[in-house]
Write a structure and sequence with these properties.
single chain; 82% helix; mainly alpha; 98 residues; 5 helices
């Protein structure tokens, strides 16, 4: 995963990553268990767009796949995205701290 070398961008990405980790921890399981397709789709769409803006393309691609899963009501596979998404954000956070 490539992170821009600009210190200002890196600071923004750090805050961005922390916010996403918090949001996923707070909301993801509830959205899956309630099968809230509107809000989970919105989360996935926001994930896609915001991650592409920061060059976090791998996470953005996961957002695209998650959008498709929600559209197809594939809740079991959508549930399986929770930990990999969190892991990718933690990976970015660890890269920033080095």
């Amino acid at each position: 995963m490539n992170i821009p070398n600009d210190p200002v961008i890196q600071e923004l990405i750090g805050e961005f990553v922390d916010t996403w980790i918090e949001d996923l921890n707070r909301d993801y399981a509830n959205l899956i268990s309630s099968q809230n397709s509107d809000d989970l789709y919105r989360l996935a769409h926001t994930l896609k767009g915001s991650c592409f803006q920061f060059g976090l393309d791998e996470i953005a691609e996961m957002g695209i796949k998650l959008m498709e899963l929600v559209k197809n009501n594939n809740w079991n596979e959508a549930k399986s995205y929770e930990e990999p998404l969190k892991s990718k954000f933690v990976e970015v956070k660890n890269m920033l701290e080095k």
